[in-house]
Amino acid sequence: MNEPQPGTYIDQYTFSSNYLYPFYKRVIQAITGVRDNLPDCPKHAPTGTNCSYPNLGINDKRHLFFVEPTSVRNLLDFTPQHSIPFSSYTNIVYAPHVYTHVFTIDSILHLNQSLYPPSFDYAYETALNESVGLQSAVLVTEFGCGADADERLLVPTIDSQDKAMISATIWPWKNNCFQEGCETSWSLYDSGTLNSTVANQNGPERPNRVRILSRVYPRGVIGQLKQYFYNTTTSSFIMTVNFYIPRRLNNSVINVTGEATLKKIIKNPDQSRLIIINPTCNGQYHVFVANNTNAIDELYKKTVINNNSTNVKSNNRHKTIQSMKKVYELFQLLHAAAVKTGETFVATSSNFVNKFTALQNAVEINIKHIIPLLNEFHKTFDLFSMY
Hints:
The chain is α+β, with helices and mostly antiparallel strands. The chain has helices spanning 12-32, 72-76, 105-108, 120-134, 150-164, 207-213, 293-306, 317-348, 355-380; strands at residues 65-67, 92-94, 137-138, 194-195, 198-199, 217-220, 228-231, 236-239, 242-245, 253-258, 260-267, 273-279, 285-290.
């Protein structure tokens, strides 16, 4: 279910616990036969109806369930929910969407980006924590932005995916556009050209997006993967093990150090390469991919220095929790105002011939109450400057 909406239900914690996850649980039961102490028939089902599903067994591996949290996560970069297992079925993938500084509350309210969310890493750290609580795998099933914001938004969010070691799928949205503003399109392709009155849909790839998204990544790893990172600017990769090198980088230099050896380089028909690393299992090893040996030397120096410190410094837990509470309060405030505006519109719209005028009137009535509260919130918003 894509970005489930809570509607007028304001307490997101109980909405997820009482409605959303029980719904997912029932769907899983219907498809797999996993019971989890639920009755064979829904409550209030007609008597005598056989609604028992065939029990495929809890270890059935033929199904993979992707479950999304509420769409509120797109605003907050965390999900207001009680992250506890809701099904004993094991093939569950937590599938949030991440749109930091695109659809988050700072963008909606035109606030300073440096205030909230505290970082691009934040959305992926919270997604990982939520999936751990749910005892599920995690895949971010949407992220992206307009092509005019690639360096400002797309690069840092992909870097954060590497840091958290979370995979994600971009929302590419191919479209044709023949007017001013096409540069903000989310597509991986330039808009087609206008041929008379017929649109040519076969526009070329956008080179900058290819550079950012065509990345070195680990395809398969034996043992526990500690960290990896791809530098978009230098097209270099560090990993501390099959991994894939796209054909765009088919002339890159490869070097393996530490407790591993380069076993084989397989050249694929499309000129990409599959690198097979054979660890000795005696300790740490590193794989470097760069344009030349000098670049590899620089990567090695940086890696040695970084090994003397922790890989990722976490934000102070107490401050993070406080910021989550504060921004959730703001969401509740705006949500309540939206509900109140809708109620006013329903109650007064019959007095107006033009329904848009009726809506404007409803907004004006309720904005009087919300503006002082928003101003008060702005005064206390420096809570987030601690990041």
